[in-house]
Fold DUF3923 family protein.
Amino acid sequence: MRKIWWIIGGIWLLSIIYFLVYVNSLSLQLWVNSSAFGAGVHIAADFCLFGGALALILHFISKIRRH
C-alpha cells in the first residue's frame, strides 16, 4: 500500500511542475487555449493537482490519528 502513496505523490509533483511551466510558457498557454487535446491535458493536470493534494492531506491526517 505504500507504493500507491509514492505514485500519488509523484503524479502530484508532476502536476505542480506542469503548472509552473504553464505559467511561464506562452507557447504552452496558446496550445492549451487553441487545442481540445491541450485543454484535456490541462484539465487532467488540474484533477491530479487538487485530487492528489486532497488524497495526500487525508492520508497524512489518517496517519497522525493512528499514532
In short: The CA atoms of residues 19 and 25 lie 10 Å apart. The chain has a mean pLDDT of 94. The radius of gyration is 15 Å.
